[in-house]
Amino acid sequence: MAIPTVVRRAATRPGSLPASLGSLAERLLTPHGVDRYLELIDPMLVRTDVRGEVVALRRPTRDSITLTVRPSRAWRGFAAGQFVRVTVDIDGVRRTRCYSPAGSAHRSGELEFTVKAHEGGLVSRHVHERAHLGMVLGLSPAGGTFALPEQRPDSVVLVAGGSGITPVLSMLRTLVDERYPGEVSLLYYARTPADVPYAEELDELAARRGVRIHVRHTASDGHFTAEHLRRVAPWFARATTFLCGPPPLMDAVRALYADAGISEHLHTEEFTPPVPAVAGTGGRIRFARSGVDIVSDGRPLLEQAEDAGLSPEHGCRMGICFSCTQRKVSGVVRTASGEESAEDDEEIQLCVTAAAGDVEIDC
Which residue windows are transmembrane per the record (predicted)? Predict the structure, then answer.
């Protein structure tokens, strides 16, 4: 599959204030701090916040975009497989989503994010349609335990589906940069050949010694089977496996490893979900944009929205990925930690927030 020519902008990391001058300015400009003033001149001049400037972009598939982002001086790198919270401004409101850098951890002077536009996805569609050279994104420090361990395993299996390719590709690229001496195999699922975002690079990587890659197209090859895994990694039972993809793939691989008694070899994006909040009795929930008005039954707002026929964007359903963040226009809500808020025009996570009275959501 031909990949479009990369659009790239020449960019250089901005100069820094001398440490002593910067510290003095920070004290003099309290309570706002020097960053609040520097960003008025150039958002990339900030000293403590992490920002990233889009310096290249390409569209590897019809519904995805790959951004090359140059981070500001406060960036401290990442471990292959970790995620970064990326913030964009949409109609004056800051929206945050989690994306995994796809590049090698040894090349973190530039970050690479591939974002797939989901139907109804506020942030993913905005990035897909509006991203441009010079666009500035907010970045968090890298986080998450889904990452290559510092002590590399003797052999590695990577299994991914859809947009789950990004963290495992980061692992593969990192191992290649290190001239990893062990065996490494990647099994990747996409619906059709046109849906594979790194097709040409995967072909090139597969030609390397010690690297085996099988790309399966679910529309023609079907979904995960043990035979698929054995073909790409017949030694998988003694390897360390990293898995990232949609729930059906995750469930199928987990079941195989459990049946084989090797679940301890399998690493996934595992989080412990908080207990959903239970609101007080009564209260109405109005989803303003959709014109839907319901009586709250105490469950998380995401579940009630879905039962009402709405399809708000969501991801982990555990309060981790921020995909379900929406603006609360008014009303009182309670989070999974038991905290209540009556603040108007605040962002809330639908999956771990419930109504504690009448609530209006911009959804």
Answer: none
- Confirm if 350 and 303 have CB atoms less than 8 A apart: no
Could you tell me which residues are beta bridge partners of residue 217? 190
Alpha helices, H only, the chain: 19-28, 34-41, 122-130, 165-177, 199-206, 218-221, 226-232, 247-259, 301-307
Helix %, strand %, coil % for the chain, to 5? 30, 30, 40
Beta partners for 362?
Answer: 327
Residue 273 falls within a domain, yes or no? no
Domain co-membership, 127 together with 37: yes
Tell me the residue type at 77: G
- Please indicate, yes or no, whether residues 342 and 302 belong to a single structural domain of this protein: yes
Query: Does residue 202 sit in the same domain as residue 242?
Result: yes
Give the pLDDT means over successive 10-residue stretches in the chain (363 positions): 48 47 50 50 63 96 96 93 91 84 93 90 91 95 92 97 95 97 97 95 93 96 96 97 93 96 89 45 85 91 89 74 85 85 89 91 92
Distance CA 283, CA 294 (A): 9
172 shares a domain with 67? no
In terms of pTM, does the model score above 0.85?
no
Given a contact cutoff of 8 angstroms between Cβ atoms, the answer to whether 142 and 84 are in contact is yes
The verdict on residue 8 lying in a domain is: no
Q: Is residue 206 in a domain?
A: yes
Q: Is 350 helix (H, G, I), strand (E, B) or coil?
A: helix
Domain that holds residue 52: 15-139
Q: Alpha-carbon distance 301 to 283, whole Å?
A: 12
> Of 51, 54, 53, 55, which Cα lies nearest the Cα of 38?
51
